[in-house]
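Continuing the series of single-chain predictions for the mutant panel. This is the parent chain; the variants come on the following pages.
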Amino acid sequence: MRCPHCNSRDFGKIGANQFYCWGCFMEFNVTGEDVRIYEVAEDGSLVALDEVAEAVSVESSAV
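Parent structure:
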């Protein structure tokens, strides 16, 4: 298995179906065929990568 974000093999299991990648510093969940990727915020909370993409899209359209 490899990180779905950076393709690294340098990750560890941190919970049930939950992993942390040391290559890109992202967390991801694997549930069957479904994979969700999360960015770790400064306060330690998880922000889904699709939510980050939406926020960037809103910022660039506001400019």
